[in-house]
Amino acid sequence: MKKLLVVLLALGLVVAFSVPASAVDSIFGGYWRTRAYMQKDFNGTDDGATDLQQVDTRTRLYYTAKFSDDFKFVNKFEFNHTWGAGPSNGAGIGTDRTDQFRIKNSYADFNVGPVNAKVGLQGYTMSRGFLFSDDFAGAIVTYKGDGVSVPFIWMKNYEGGKGKDANDEDVDYYGVAPKISLDKLTVNPYVLWVTSDDPADEIDVYFLGVDADADLGAASVWFTGIYETGTEKVPGVETDLSAWLVALGGSANVGPASVHGQFFYATGDDDGTDNDENAFIGPAGQSYYWSEIMGLGIFDSQDSANSCDDNISDIMAVNLGATMKPMDKLAVTLDLWYAALAEDDANGETALGTEVDLKVAYNLVENLKLEVVGAYLFAGDATTGKAANDANPYEVGTRLSFSF
Predict the structure, then answer these.
(1) Stretches in the chain below the pLDDT threshold 50
(2) pLDDT (tens digit, 9 = 90+) per residue, 110-147?
(3) What is the predicted pLDDT for the residue at 319?
(4) Burial group, residue 220, by CB count within 10 angstroms (0-12, 13-18, 19+)
C-alpha cells in the first residue's frame, strides 16, 4: 500500500511540475469525521451477541486538476480507521501502516458543446438512493438543454475477464434519467436495465420510475414511484419479477420549527414456493439511509434484526420529525419512526417497532460540527422474534466532522 501511495504522489508531482502553472488550476478539498458510539441489543435480545462500542475515523481527500471550464480531472481518496483494530487497520500502535486506503473516485469530466461526459470511477445517485447511491466504474454522458438534462448511464458491475464466453459473465447497468424543470416543479423519469448473459445466472431486470419535487415556498413535497420487472434464470429455473416501491415526503416551516416527514412502502414476496418474485429488490449500489437504528443512520455499522437497513425491500415505514434552532450554532432534531414488514415473517409477524431518534448538532467553531445522537427502538415481534430474553435496541454516540 505504501508503494501505491508513493506512485500516486509521484504522478501528481509529475503533472504539477510538467504543466505550466497558468494551464491548470489545482483544487483541493476533503472531509473528516471521528465517531464514538455504543450500540446495544440490536439483535432484539440481551445476549450481547451484537453489542458494539468503538471509535472510528474517516478521512477523504479531494484533488481536481482544472484545465479549463470544459475539462477537469477529478480524484477522491478515502482512509478508514477503527481505533485500536491493529496495525493493518491503521489505527493501533504504528498508525502509518494501513490497508484501509481506497481510491474512491478518479474520472475525466469534460464538455463538448451541450454534452457533458464523466468517464471513470465516479459517484451517482438515482431515485434518491432507492435504486442507486454509490461509486461505480463506467460513464455518464449528459445532454444539457434549457430546463432539461438527459443523462445516459453505463455502470460496470462485474467483468467476466478473458476466455471463451467469458464476456457472457459481465453484469452491466444501462440507464437514462432525464430531468425536466417546470418552474417550481422538477420531474425526473428514469429507466435502469440490469443485464447479464451468464448461463449460470442470466439477468434481465428493468426498473421504471419517476421522481417529482415541488417547491411551494415555505414548504416542499416529493414523490417517488418505481416498478420492477424482468426475469432471472438459473439452469432449470426461471423467475419472473414483478414488484414496486412508492415513497413520498415533505417539509414545512411551522413557527420556530421545521417539520418533516416521509412514508415509503416496498413490496415483499408473498409466496416463496413459486417462481414469481414479488419482493422489490434493488440492484447492487442501492442505498437509502433512514432511521438511526432500523435504517443505519449516522452510526452505520449495523441495523436492528430483520430490518432491511439501507436496501429498501419488504418494508413499510412512516416518519414524522421536527428541527428547532434555539441559536445560530445549535440545531435539535427529533424523529419518530414506525416500521413493519410488508409480508409476514416465518412467525407470522410484521411489526419491527417504533423508534425515537434525537440529534443535537452544534458548530464548535467555523466549519467544525459536533453531533450527539441518542436512539431507542421499542421493538416489535418481527425484531425480537418473540425471544424469551427479548430487549429493545438502543444506541448513543457522537460525531465530530468538518469539510473543506
Answers:
(1) 1-10, 13
(2) 999 999 999 999 999 999 999 999 999 999 999 999 99
(3) 98
(4) middle
